[in-house]
Amino acid sequence: MPSGQDVSENQLLDQFINQLKVERGLSTNTIVAYSHDLIRFFDFLKRKGLSPIHISQEDLTSFIVEQNAELSPRSMARRLVSIRMFYRFLVSEGDIESNPARLLGIPKMYQHLPDVLTRDEIDSLLMQPDITTALGKRDKAIIEILYATGLRVTELIALTIYNINLEVGSIRTIGKGSKERIIPMGSKAIDSLKDYLSNSRPTLLKKRYAAGGPYIFLNSRGSPITRQGLWKIIKKYALMAGINKGVTPHTVRHSFATHLLEGGADLRSVQIMLGHADISTTQIYTHVTGDRLKEIHEKYHPRP
What we know:
The protein is mainly alpha-helical and 304 residues long. The protein is built from 14 helices and 3 strands.
């Protein structure tokens, strides 16, 4: 008799999440997403009077049919990935003998091409912060660093003074899956960061309730900047620059990758700088640059 028969759903979920944390080193956001997916799956099983240990492929099919009516293709795909990983875990732990999700396929999705800013739009965005003020210096440094390194939002707000080497001109960050990478910065980003660190950050740290500690980017109260705060900063300057696109911090990351490839960088190098585990994730940018090449061809070729 499989040992999992006497284990509650919560215990199974806790064991699975612990495995994701300890053995696979997945990010907190990914683990939260998987937990959410499995809780929804367990809710479905409860309504059907079923246990995760005792289900069939037909039960999984019923769940998929129900979920397809509620979720986007991307969310549905992630939910199916969560279930497949969960049942592989149960088999590996001896909780079940046969994997009911072994034939569960993941639907192919249309690959959405990310919004990308032109070089002129990036320049316009960088011209908006008022660098005569402490927050303006901070904001200029933030945009410069985002565009120079392609950091994710969570990576940028987590930066501390121990993560930067201004002499070498590089940033060390911990990305998805707790993987460390070192990314070079250009001279403009270095200069902007130096200006902020010398002439702005000390002012913010003197605020009455400052709690920024070693974190590099601080808000007006001297505390570490938040995800929401960063999004507001980018949207504010995009609006000021008159950019008619849905600009987010991730848009700047997309622009970083696209402009590197357009400039002749190889895909593998861009993959390393972005922190992508699989190069297939980076390949989406080849579609973007392909569109750009088509535009150039149509514009400049003598026989368009």
